[in-house]
Amino acid sequence: LVVSDTSYHGCMLQVRDVKFFPDGRSVVDRVLRVLTHSQRDGYHTAKIEYLEDKKVEGEELTELLKLHDSVYDQALGWFTSLKDDMKNQIISHFGQLPVKDSDPQDNPNGPAWCWWLLAVLPLENKAQLTILAMNTLKDRLIAIRRVLIFVTRKRPQ
Q: Mind listing the pLDDT tens digit for each residue in 54-69?
């Protein structure tokens, strides 16, 4: 759950295979917005609304596919350029970068590699929340591209 002053967003995990990470985190499967929240018997409870990306067709889809391929290639370039010890830490904690989806609109929340990348990029919670709350893949890809440009330029040569 990511919280800002005005909103709550979170992710729900559909368990397909269990792999526990040392800090208890796992990779996003479904994006949701918390409508109301409370506690019951010491557990956090909430009424939620699942968020889904708005699908596009025609020329917009053609542009989205180009953007998707471009940002994936940029992400792969950034990841492969990391020092081996950093790459190995990421892989041991989050697994390999997922393969590029042939249809990035197939999953209601977009490609798995986007969520994997958001988990491993050095982002503050507020930035993660902003991207998490986006409901179009195009907007999310543009935001990820900006982050990748920033972290690539920031890295010492």
A: 899 999 999 999 999 9
φ, ψ dihedrals at 27, nearest 5°: -85, 145
> Would you state the pLDDT for residue 15?
47
CA angle 18, 22, 25 (to 5 degrees): 60
Are 74 and 147 within 8 A, CB to CB?
no
User: Reduced to 3 states, what is the DSSP secondary structure of residue 117?
Assistant: helix
Give the relative orientation of helices 112-120 and 84-94 as an angle to the nearest 10 degrees: 120
How is residue 33 annotated by DSSP?
E
Per-residue pLDDT band at 100 (split at 50, 70, 90) = very high
Check: CB of residue 60 under 8 Å from CB of residue 37.
Answer: no
Q: What is the pLDDT of residues 101-127, one digit of tens each?
A: 899 999 888 898 998 999 899 888 888
**Could you tell me if residue 95 is left (phi over 0), alpha (psi between -120 and 50 degrees) or otherwise beta?**
left
Domain that holds residue 94: 2-154
The domain total for the chain is 1
CB within 8 Å of 39: residues ≥ 6 apart: 45
